[in-house]
Design a protein that fits this description.
The complex is a heterodimer of chains A (295) and B (295). Chain A is mainly α. Chain A contains 13 helices and no strands. Chain A has two domains: 4-41, no CATH class; 77-290, MetI-like fold (Orthogonal Bundle). Helix content of chain A is 72%, strand content 0%. Chain B is built from twelve helices and no strands. Classes of the chains: A mainly alpha (295), B mainly alpha (295). Chain B: This is Carbohydrate ABC transporter membrane protein 1 (CUT1 family).
């Protein structure tokens, strides 16, 4: 009975005794499927609708009775206030996220190559120990981390966060590259070895040229997670020197609930990662897959 | 000996910087953190060890116990919700749907947004006012004739934490869908055909062929959602704020202890969080490690 739902795309099964009912039933099932998909689609879009609509409402129009309605006039004051509050932080976030993603991607690529294709004794153990760093709650290292960064005189704000994103990004970058390099044919590496090339030569001339897709996945992943980070940011920066998540939280949690500005701010703060998601979606999903440990 | 050095030296050197960084920042600091949790450290100043006093105080503190209870409920709700929607969406999409790309993109997009940004809109949606002053979801429910479903969302002392799981499920279900979709597509068509040839009913096909093939995906999904869930912090800070009682979890308790300068208590909470995560992650990593070695 429920079978028709998943049967759509398979070659037609042997005709049943009453083809008419069967066909009708299949059509009903397909309609139900698309209806369900559409309902879920609209459900998922509700918060996006609210963000967009509310960001254009003036303070006077942010009344409960008009909560779900379109604005009567499209007011941009909220966007202006949000931009004033967030624009300095946006620049700082780019200055933090881009270099830190590149550094951890480069280190991750080297680790991934060694762990997948130029293995040494206990390589799997080292890999597993590194991987653990990806799962720990950072609260378990936070207090000594605060003391360490103060002790080393690393300035709070972007410099501290740069160090942290590089270090704690290493496990996932290593994982993604390791899985990626595991798909590079062993023969190519062997051939290079037989030709007498050392490890660095093999890495630089055989492996690196093949690495572009791996780098795209890792950079997107690191960009997104560093951009969206709030935990390290709240411990190591403030609204004057921190990334955009801190400024947004500051803007949104003010005593006076300025909904149009905070919703506009949420959209501004999400814009870069959403663009990355829309433009490079295929690789974004690739990163999500590699993030699931199983190679 | 020289031969060995020649052979294993370069790969070990290449991985050394990352290994040292992770060794210090993960394992070293976990140790220091545990050590701190055994002292009476206030803002970096300590007079000595107090044994397990910080832990016994925490476990006899009603608010902390309540935060652990909240964490357990949140984790169950988050897991159940994301697995349900993730599987359902993947199942609906797995056999050629027209416009699949659009559905997939929309279902997955919340993943690209930070918890802080989505918290801004969910705070508005989960507004606890009812009746005439209702806005957000309560107002929406009223408008579509479901007014009896209005509730106080995250401000309820018993069930409030469920309300925080709603945005979390909204945000991560698409990820789980992507995992399951990849799992479905990894099942060889011949396997389904063979089962059908043998006259297996659709239910038996799922029971004996498809579910077993999907179980590694389900395990990955549980690990990913589970470890994220145990660290929940950003969402609560953005929706309810750090001082709200009904949404306390260990991570907010840790942040409060830190802002009060009670470093040793904060360190103890961090260690407890690590143990909770480790109970889940370590068996998984050990399992993967063994599988890897036996390859």
């Amino acid at each position: 009975m429920t079978t028709q739902l998943v049967d759509d795309a398979t070659p037609a099964p042997p005709r049943s005794a009453r083809p008419d009912t069967s066909r009708r039933r299949r059509r009903t099932a397909r309609t139900a499927k698309y209806l369900l998909l559409l309902v879920f689609l609209m459900g998922v879009m509700i918060p996006a609708y609210v963000l967009f609509v509310t960001s254009f409402k003036s303070l006077g129009e942010a009344t409960p009775t008009r909560a779900w309605a379109l604005p009567t006039e499209w007011y941009t004051g909220g966007w202006e206030r949000a931009w004033d509050a967030l624009s300095p932080a946006l620049g700082r976030t780019f200055a933090l996220v881009i270099p830190s993603s590149i550094v951890s991607a480069v280190l991750g690529s080297m680790n991934g190559f060694v762990l997948a294709r130029w293995r040494f004794p206990y390589a799997d153990l080292v890999f597993t120990l590194m991987l653990f760093g990806m799962f720990i709650p950072y609260q378990a290292v936070m207090i000594p981390l605060v003391e360490l960064m103060q002790g080393l005189n690393v300035p709070s704000g972007i410099p501290s966060l740069f160090v942290l994103h590089v270090v704690f990004g290493l496990p996932i970058c290593t994982l993604i590259f390791r899985n990626y390099y595991a798909s590079v044919p062993e023969d190519m590496i062997e051939a290079s070895r037989v030709d007498g090339a050392g490890m660095l030569r093999t890495y630089a001339s055989i492996v690196l040229p093949l690495s572009a897709p791996g780098f795209v996945v890792v950079l997107i992943w690191q960009f997104t997670s560093a951009w969206n980070d709030f935990l390290f940011a709240i411990f190591f920066s403030n609204a004057q020197n921190g990334p955009v998540t801190i400024s947004l939280n500051f803007l949104a949690s003010g005593q006076l609930q300025d909904y149009s500005a905070s919703m506009a701010g949420a959209l501004i703060a999400s814009f870069p990662t959403l663009i990355v998601y829309i433009v490079l979606g295929r690789w974004f999903i690739g990163g999500l897959m590699s993030g699931s440990v199983k190679s | 000996m020289r031969n060995k050095l020649h052979r294993w030296g370069p790969p070990i050197l290449l991985i050394a910087p990352s290994a040292v960084l992770i060794g210090v920042f993960v394992y070293g600091l976990i140790g220091v953190n545990f050590n701190t949790s055994l002292t009476d450290n206030i803002r970096g100043q300590t007079t000595g060890y107090v044994g397990l006093e910080n832990y016994t105080t925490l476990f006899s503190d009603d608010t902390f116990m309540y935060s652990l209870r909240n964490l357990a409920i949140y984790t169950l709700a988050f897991l159940a919700g994301t697995l349900f929607f993730g599987f359902l969406w993947a199942w609906l999409l797995e056999r050629g749907v027209r416009g699949e790309g659009i559905f997939r993109t929309v279902y997955l997009f919340p993943m690209a947004v930070s918890f802080v940004a989505s918290g801004v809109v969910w705070r508005w949606l989960l507004n606890s006012n009812t009746g005439d002053s209702a806005s957000g979801l309560n107002r929406g429910l009223d408008m579509i004739g479901l007014g009896f479903l209005q509730n106080s969302w995250w401000t309820d002392e018993t069930w409030g934490i469920f309300a925080i799981a709603v945005p979390a499920i909204w945000q991560l279900s698409g990820y789980i869908m992507a995992l399951f979709l990849a799992g479905f597509r990894g099942i060889p068509e011949e396997l389904r055909e063979a089962a059908r040839m043998d006259g297996a009913s659709e239910w038996k096909l799922y029971r004996h062929v498809i579910f077993p093939q999907l179980s590694p995906v389900a395990l990955s999904a549980i690990i990913i959602i589970g470890h994220m869930s145990l660290k929940v912090f950003d969402l609560i800070m953005a929706i309810a704020g750090q001082t709200n009682y009904t949404t306390q979890v260990p991570a907010t308790q840790m942040w409060i202890a830190f802002t009060r300068g009670e470093y040793s208590v904060a360190a103890a909470i961090g260690t407890i969080m690590l143990l909770v995560v480790a109970v889940m992650i370590v068996p998984y990593l050990v399992h993967n490690y063994r599988a890897e070695r036996n390859r």
